[in-house]
Amino acid sequence: MKVGFIGLGTMGSSMAANIAAAGHELVVNDLNRSSSAAAEEAGATWADSPAEVARVSEVVFTSLPGPVEVEAVALGPNGIAEGAHDGLAYFDLSTNSPTVV
Q1: Rounded CA separation 97/54 (Å)
Q2: Which end of the chain has fewer CB atoms < 10 Å from its terminal CB, N or C?
Q3: Which residues have C-beta within 8 Å of that of residue 11, sequence separation ≥ 6?
Q4: 22-41 residue pLDDT tens
Q5: Alpha-carbon distance 88 to 55, whole Å?
Q6: Number of helices and strands in the chain (H, E)
């Protein structure tokens, strides 16, 4: 399965590493490119935007700091919604607000 992961902070980087270790093809993105180093060493591919992650993935996970970041990544310019396609599943693992979800 081709999995996208956006948000490679303390929690996200560990989750992404587990996805790669399970043998899934992994595409990653983060505001800070250097955060992707461990994931890329494990075989992940870098995508330049959340939209690009969505375009090439079957499922996308986000692990972001909060509601503002989730809205920007999901619905903002070059966000997941711009790259979404039929069959794409999106799971938000962030500390989020029920109204944003």
Answers
A1: 22
A2: C
A3: 63, 93
A4: 999 999 999 999 999 889 98
A5: 9
A6: 5, 5
Give the tokens for residue 26: 């992994």
Contact call for residues 39 and 15 (beta carbons, < 8 A)? no
Q: What is the pTM of this model?
A: 0.94
| 74/54 Cα distance (integer angstroms) | 10
Residue 26 β-bridge partners: 3
What are the tokens at 12?
Answer: 């996200």
Q: Which of 51, 53, 63 is nearest to 25 (CA)?
A: 53
> CA angle, corner 9, sides to 68 and 13, nearest 5?
130
